[in-house]
Design brief:
Largest sheet: 2 strands, antiparallel
Order of helices and strands: HHHHHHHHHEEHHH
Oligomer: single chain
Shape: extended
Strand order of the largest sheet: 1-2
Strand content: under 5%
Structural class: mainly alpha
Radius of gyration: 39 Å
Distance between the termini: 127 Å
Number of strands: 2
Helix content: 40-55%
Length: 252
Amino acid sequence: GSWWKKKPQGKKPTTDSSRLARLERAKTAHSLHDAKSLPEGLSKAPQFEVQDSAHILKCFYTWMLKGPAAKSATGYVSNVKQLMREHQLSLESMNSGEFAAFVKGGSENLKANGIWSASLRQFQFWLKDRASLSGPWEEMASPSDRLFDIRCSSSRAPAPSADPSKPVGEALKDMFGVKASSEKATPMKGGKELTVEETPEKLESAGPTKATKRSGAKTAAKDVGTVTPEGSAKRTRRAQSSSGPGDGHSDG
């Protein structure tokens, strides 16, 4: 037969059946936030692991940056941090297949196309590559590294290190150039904040403003076109003096 009569081969389906199946399973799946759905036999993290959690997450983050999924490092670390904060499991339990299956079958993971299980899988790859579940840790996180602090829910990248010897307000000012809450707010003008150079006292002593200068220029322009009797007499005398003695009319 002719080639143009043949039906196209390998045509992709118009709907993603696997995605629809995941969303359907998510309706009856357990929540990742439900501690009661955790498998039995998982142990809680000892106190020293809780204290080292920020260092553990920073080591994982640094390892991620060196791999092919570097762009996902911040998101993956944020997800693992949330699992740590909510369930407080030991590294041994987080590295288990039982916990991986719990995360994989979670409703949030199914709805998010497996992002939670992918984050935990990379975390387990890192633990396997490190070949140790205990310290000393290769990286040490500072108190200002919000991404690694399990007390913080923010997924922002690590903030610049602050000087611990300074008050919070001064440290924020050094890091981000923002005012501390104790500083007095400067007056507002026209919806814009006045700088130190533009406060009312400074404006009063700085001479005429732009608007005043424009007003003065208009007044001066009007004065140029105004003719006074005194000015008219001066122009008459200048005209007479410039005419010379031989320019007058003769009486004959």
